[in-house]
Please model this.
Amino acid sequence: MKKALKIIGIALGVVIILFIVAAVILSLTFNPNRYKGEITRLVKAQTGRTLTIDGKISLSFFPWIGADIGSVSLSNAPGFGSSPFAQVSKLGVKVKLLPLLRKKVEVDEIIVDGLKLNLVKDRAGRGNWQGLTGQGKPAPAAAAKPAASPIAGLLVSGVSVQNSELMWNDEQSGKRYTVRNLDFQTGQISPGRMTDVTLGFDLSSGSPPLHTRVTLKARLAVDPGRQTLESPAASLEAAGMKIKLTDLKGTRIFDAPSFSGNLDIPAFDARALMARLGIRYEPSDKRALTKVAFRGPFNVSTTAVQLRNFRLGVDDSTLNGSFALADFAHPAYRFNLNLDQIDLDRYLPRPSAPAPKRNGPPPAAARPAVVLPLAGLRALDINGILKVHKLTATNIRSSDISASILAKNGLIVLNPLQAKLYGGTYKGTFRMDARGRIPYFSMDENLQGVQVGPLLKDMQTFSHFTGTGNLAFKLNAHGLTAGQITSNLNGNGSFSLRNGKIVGVDFVRIINQTRAIAQQMRGKPVAAQTSNSDTTAFSSLTGTVRVVNGIAHNNDLVLDSPALAATGGGSANLVAQNLDYTLRVTLDRDNPSKRLTVPVTIRGPFSGLKYDVDWSDIAKRQAEKALKNELQKQLNQGLRRLLP
Model:
């Protein structure tokens, strides 16, 4: 769009200049209407286009030299159809005679009425405006010394462009823009002097679909010689959005534009704007992105943008700090940002309705895995700090988050990472190396004093534990997809919970309930009946974990409770989300005569674990104990016979 506007501006300027040149030349003749053919031949020779003057030419000589021309058109470039490239219903320009003797140019109001400009870029990238400015002709040799300007001063009473239309059609990209009912007015124009400018037009486009009125009001001063621009105040309104600029300053505005000033965007409905642009977005919260505002100073050029001490409001959140983007061709991001609060889940797409259940096996074709974009990761150039006071993401709540982010040439490091969550603290480091063919990951995570129950509940995952916990993990992995990364996960960790509960199972109750059933089943394993309301309280639960290729192994779990003690071991398949674990539960551990150790197997998916009490193992061990006692008894009897 920016390039299109630049081309429109250049083409519009060239067309107006051509028409003005034609008007000035005609004003120097006594009977201008007799010279229409001569002017047409001159334009044809210079541009290859046909200038058609259908309207009458009226001249003035004193005190103004000027001309009013009606119904003028300029033909299109070869290969772009028969429609005119440009046409105008009325064109008027007058220059005051006497100031010319003092090398001063005083121009009366320039009037352009009914201009229609048709800009087209074909599929080969060729534009129908090319050739109007003498492109392809050799440049004149540079003079040894710049000649003095023949003009001592320039003053234009104003410019008025009314009832005009501009069409832009890019056949390469398929984008089309139409500007109708264009009105452009200025006050008195002189280099370096302030003037009022107003612009209004109806903008329509097909992709993205847009229909809106655009209005611009500004007070500005332009000095072409110094290539400067100043505007104490300017405002732009379009599509329900208003932009205010104050203290705007521009330098090198023709060869290397650079602007600075203050930007103020009052609160607007971004969702409504997206709808007008044809962008479909339905977040979980229907009020998301309905109130967006921005305020702060800026510096922008053709290669970079910088925001200092800005304030961005999005609904109930406020972001402030500094941000810089250098080198648009190879973006480098630098920032130091502070966010007061945000609930990211509000902005996630609204969950779709579950698909109806089907009979028979699922479809054979699975959804393709998302592959990490290595080229994009290697292009990242980031150095910044982000702090968030309150954050909700994937239903997990945390506060006082701080993250230092560094990314360069495919190496991405987040260190340090720290936050407060669920009554405890988190500290960690994340490292991703995408410089090779396969990206490698490493992470060092440490949680201290975290309330595990609320955390697991909000995570909506393996929520079978409560208590205050310490967890530490050092893991590494490699892969291009989530499945590959999980299956190549390796490392180790440890956990320690105190004063908590195992939710969904009461080991004392299920052992007592299955004891009688086991006698009837003759030692076969008995499925335990559990309830979500069942719990097993413990004073401590500790263990270590070793992760090998996506499978977590634990063989040293120790559970201590007033009612029981337990040890355990097994594995959890993190790829398949399955658990295969055996817990050896000891009841009445302080009473040797009643002490009983029962193996409980825990198997199945994380979302639906099954508990089985293996009474066959108990029967086997009891038989072994009885046999041992009998052998000991017989040995004792034999020894008594041998002894005198």
